[in-house]
Amino acid sequence: MSAETEEIEASLREALLRCNKCGFCLAHCPIYKATGVEWATARGRITLLRSALLDRELEFSDIEDPVFDCLTCTACVDDCP
Question: What is the helix, strand, coil percentage profile of the chain, to 5?
Answer without folding.
Answer: 70, 0, 30
